[in-house]
């Protein structure tokens, strides 16, 4: 049974193999690629800052930040001001929040039998777009983060404006999604409490309980997070065992025979990336409670993504307070990039999970570029013996519609997966 | 109110135009006037499989992304789908620079990647018979105002004036330079721009293409709040068939003079003008605007 899955920033096909009326194996196929890595070869290093946001229309900013980090890691002692670090982190947070709202109202809502809430999705995501544009000039597709900092200068009026964008988004989130104060929601450590509200999140959770889907969509219970900043913690966890050491040498990308998406693994094992992984590493009380009861099920996965909106809004407010406007936004590198021959890696947390960019430069020209996107981790098309994260999560289901729901809780992005 | 039926097809794209469209502030009003028979993100009555296998009534065809003979959607060649609907619709709108001129994916994974009616600046004939109903709204991504207002203009049957690259003049007769907050620095040739500052023009050193790029970024602003050049990022010329050029953060010069001059300015005139304006020393342009 082959099913075309669409409206996932492109399309994919899922080939369901049944045995005894249950899904035994799902072959995941992506049918096109644009070849961004090849486009980059031979280009001037800084041009990657313009090309790479175009990997993806919905999370292009994460690709910009991963690019700038990869290029900066080619230097031995590059200086970045704290101000530039904070500004980059803020715009990345805003993009994550923007993505989560779109996923929640455009993708998830219809899967539970509700009408797609286009206007709610666009209302919240637009405010976050304005906040990014205030720093970055426009959204999507800005290249405002450059080697040495950011191109913008920020005034106190900008801070006033961005603060009001965050507050407006918090208000929208409280009124529509959670129906409780953000601070209270962040402190909540009990799934039942989240169930009781009148918000849109509770509507979905209630259906999950009614239909007895609480254990639905379990995979290996293995999580990994590469991006690290003032909020996210990197590391991997298997069930509750956490380890912090993640050498990039163990990250392996492999061609997939039947699809344009390459598989990616760590020490030959597939790991889940994304909000649930981040919450596991951060030990977020509400998600810990969900995971303790229901493991890495769709319930934990959905809750983690929505919960992250609250956390990031809250954290962005405190980051904004830390900005010291007297610092420089940009510190010119001592060595011009045209003289740099080196290799570098940059990792960030994008909405859907860890995003890794690797670059090698010869006198400022890109010799090789490798992009490993979050959905390559989650949607890896493994073999029957060693299935990928989302493949494993769909095994044993009887109905391909429910399998599609499980698949989409990973917030699939086709353009990123294939790039 | 009768809604116009719109088909939004994604060809070889990053979906950036889809998401730029979501930033249109009055989406509710838009959706009262238009109905997507298919859209890459918004739910629609028909699925992609319906679109490729049936012939559904439609008024406007929107294509995002560049095209190639090899590229398919739902296993059907994209050009075949485009031709099927091109016959029926009132207008064909190429949304973004990829669909207009080929754009960024020209050197990627597919052969013969072009726009619908142009390969960069060169007119091509794969859809020649439908050229009379074509409109290009370029940009990487397209500005949502330009997209939505073009669709309303089609709905109201306004006669749009197009330039020779089929772009509506009302948006593309301007240069990006028009409305830039750094214009005084350009006028007086104050080229002391440093990244991370409010001051200085980026045309002389940092590759800013605003003076010779057609578009309205600084007139209609992005996300209603800003533009790249206002923020301090050079214009990358993303509305032009030449996008993306190479070496985007530096200005190519011949004997100290930028190779590309502002639209319609010849070199000798430019040199004379530069000589005069450089003679001014305007104190307020030599120091910080706000802090001191």
Automatic annotation (TrEMBL), chain A:
Which cofactors are named for this entry?
Ni(2+); Fe cation
What's the superkingdom here?
Bacteria
Q: Which residues participate in Mg(2+) binding?
A: 37, 371, 419
Q: Which GO terms describe its molecular function?
A: ferredoxin hydrogenase activity; nickel cation binding
Stored SUPFAM superfamilies: HydB/Nqo4-like
Annotated residues that bind Fe cation are located at 59, 416
Keywords of the record, alphabetical order, are:
Iron, Magnesium, Metal-binding, Nickel, Oxidoreductase
Query: Per the record, GO CC terms?
Result: cell envelope
Q: Which Gene3D superfamilies match?
A: Cytochrome-c3 Hydrogenase, chain B
Q: Where in the cell is it found?
A: Cell envelope
Spell out the InterPro entries in the cross-references: Ni-dep_hyd_lsu, Ni-dep_hyd_lsu_Ni_BS, NiFe-Hase_large, NiFe/NiFeSe_hydrgnase_LSU
Q: Which PANTHER family match?
A: HYDROGENASE EXPRESSION_FORMATION PROTEIN HUPK, HYDROGENASE-2 LARGE CHAIN
Name of the molecule in the record:
Nickel-dependent hydrogenase large subunit
Provenance organism: Sulfurimonas lithotrophica
TrEMBL record, chain B:
Question: Which positions are annotated as binding [4Fe-4S] cluster 1?
Answer: 14, 98, 140
**GO terms of molecular function:** 3 iron, 4 sulfur cluster binding; 4 iron, 4 sulfur cluster binding; electron transfer activity; ferredoxin hydrogenase activity; metal ion binding
- A GO biological process held by the record: anaerobic respiration
**InterPro entries attached here?**
Cytochrome-c3_hydrogenase_C, NADH_UbQ_OxRdtase-like_20kDa, NiFe-Hase_small_C_sf, NiFe_Hase_small_N_sf, NiFe_hydrogenase_ssu
List cellular component terms (GO): [Ni-Fe] hydrogenase complex; cell envelope; ferredoxin hydrogenase complex; membrane
Keyword Iron in the entry? The reply is yes
Q: Any idea where the NADH:ubiquinone oxidoreductase-like 20kDa subunit domain is?
A: 14-153
What domain of life is recorded for the organism? Bacteria
Q: Where does [3Fe-4S] cluster bind?
A: 217, 235, 238
**Binding of [4Fe-4S] cluster 2, residues:** 177, 180, 201, 208
Q: Which UniProt keywords apply?
A: 3Fe-4S, 4Fe-4S, Iron, Iron-sulfur, Metal-binding, Oxidoreductase, Signal
Q: Where in the cell is it found?
A: Cell envelope
Q: Where is the Cytochrome-c3 hydrogenase C-terminal domain?
A: 172-246
Cofactor or coenzyme needed: [4Fe-4S] cluster
Which Pfam family is one of those matched by this entry?
A: Oxidored_q6
- Its primary localisation, in coarse terms, equals other
**Family of this protein:** Belongs to the [NiFe]/[NiFeSe] hydrogenase small subunit family.
Q: How does it assemble?
A: Heterodimer of a large and a small subunit.
Protein name, entry field: Hydrogenase
Q: What is the species of this protein?
A: Sulfurimonas lithotrophica
Which lineage?
Bacteria, Pseudomonadati, Campylobacterota, Epsilonproteobacteria, Campylobacterales
